[in-house]
Design a protein that fits this description.
The chain is 41% helix and 25% strand. It is of the alpha/beta class. It has an 8-stranded mixed β-sheet with strand order 3-2-1-4-7-6-8-5, with helices on both faces. Strand 1, helix 1 and strand 2 form a beta-alpha-beta unit. Helix 1 runs parallel beside helix 2.
């Protein structure tokens, strides 16, 4: 079972798009809870959480501090961090379940990120080429989501609540040898 942590910035459309992609996972019993962590004072995300049956956590601070706060509040042994506006493709449920079972049954802790896919509705541009090159050279970026066992997350020190680049630092601490790139794609709206 898995807790999904989504930091939002008071924008309903991106949060709803991500939640819609998680509904089949909740129906399949993979997603135990979803935490929407929001720093905006407009009440929009609190209403979205109420309607969608998610937990709401008001938090003021940096993006990574919101991720750290969500991880502290999560109840499941597995954590999935997604950005608002991240939409997972249909195969994520089976692949995520299999990954969690394999890692839980092994002595080698691993984490996973989703394969980045450009939105089919976006116009390709020079920036897309640069982003692809950066992902190829440096590895996955924080916007590709992260699936990690809570125990492994805690052992690595989690997200630092005070750093702007804490997401990238956690991916670096994982290293290539303990990070899996899943076949399931993630599209960022």
């Amino acid at each position: 079972m898995l807790s999904v942590i989504i930091p939002t910035e008071g924008v309903e459309q991106t949060a709803v798009a991500t939640l819609a992609a998680l509904v089949p996972g909740a129906a399949a019993g993979v997603v135990r809870e979803v935490l929407l962590v929001d720093g905006a004072d407009n009440g929009v995300i609190e209403r979205v959480a109420d309607v969608a049956g998610c937990r709401f956590l008001r938090f003021s601070g940096s993006h990574t501090a919101a991720l750290a706060a969500g991880a502290r509040e999560a109840r499941s042994p597995w954590l999935m961090f997604l950005r608002a506006g991240a939409v997972l493709d249909a195969g994520w449920i089976d692949e995520t379940s299999q990954f969690m079972q394999r890692v839980s049954g092994s002595d080698h802790p691993r984490a996973a990120v989703f394969r980045y896919a450009r939105s089919p509705y976006a116009e390709p541009g020079f920036r897309d080429g640069l982003r692809w090159l950066a992902r190829t050279i440096t590895g996955p970026r924080a916007d590709q989501g992260l699936l990690i066992a809570r125990e492994h997350y805690d052992r690595l020190g989690g997200y630092a609540a005070d750093g702007r680049v804490s997401e990238a630092q956690l991916l670096r601490r994982l290293g290539r040898s303990s990070r899996t790139l899943l076949h399931s794609r993630i599209i960022i709206l």
